[in-house]
């Protein structure tokens, strides 16, 4: 039985956290904001107390209150920090905020921040991993 190379697996947690942030943003979008049955529940006269929070969230998206001003600027600032600082935490933050912005309707800055964050994280991890020669 071959031993498991744990050197490569120690770089997995940032990627797993990134997937978790993306999943949380997807849950917020597809399970809380977009479903019509939740809209009908919150439109009823005796709606749950959390419906007011959802209403303000939906109104903010409809009127582009969050757009580039909140998620996009934070994602782009984190991407610039990742390029300048060259730390895994900064690269992960840029990728996570980019994924969050993409899920919450802020496409252009979110995509750019996600790309910069992921590429920075890959570059940092490639510099840390030991070099191996290809098998002949």
Short description:
The chain has 136 residues and is mainly alpha-helical.
What's the layout of helices and strands?
Elements: H1 6-9, H2 12-33, H3 36-43, H4 51-62, H5 67-85, H6 88-103, H7 107-128
Helix pairs in contact: 2-6, 5-6, 5-7, 6-7
What is the straight-line distance between the termini? 22 Å
Beta-strand residue percentage:
under 5%
Number of helical runs? 7
Query: How would you sum up the major sheet?
Result: none
Rounded radius of gyration (Å): 19 Å
- Structurally, how many domains make up the residues? 1
What percent of the residues sit in helical stretches (DSSP H or I)?
over 70%
Helix-strand pattern: HHHHHHH
Rough outline:
elongated
**Uncertain spans, ≥5 residues at pLDDT below 50?**
none
Count every beta strand, where a strand is a DSSP E run of 2 or more residues: 0
Can you walk me through this structure?
- The chain is mainly alpha-helical and 136 residues long.
- The chain has one domain (17-128).
- The protein is built from seven helices and no strands.
- It has helices spanning 6-9, 12-33, 36-43, 51-62, 67-85, 88-103, 107-128.
- Helix 5 (67-85) runs parallel beside helix 7.
- It is elongated and about 65 Å long.
Features:
single chain
């Amino acid at each position: 039985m071959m031993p498991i190379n744990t050197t490569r697996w120690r770089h997995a947690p940032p990627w797993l956290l990134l997937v978790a942030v993306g999943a949380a943003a997807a849950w917020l979008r597809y399970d809380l904001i977009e479903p019509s049955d939740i809209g009908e529940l919150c439109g009823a006269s005796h709606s749950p107390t959390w419906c007011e929070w959802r209403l303000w969230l939906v109104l903010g998206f409809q009127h582009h209150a969050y757009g580039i001003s909140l998620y996009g600027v934070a994602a782009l600032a984190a991407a610039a920090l990742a390029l300048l600082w060259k730390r895994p935490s900064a690269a992960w933050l840029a990728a996570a905020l980019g994924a969050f912005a993409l899920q919450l309707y802020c496409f252009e800055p979110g995509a750019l921040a996600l790309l910069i964050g992921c590429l920075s994280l890959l570059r940092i991890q490639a510099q840390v991993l030991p070099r191996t020669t290809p098998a002949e």
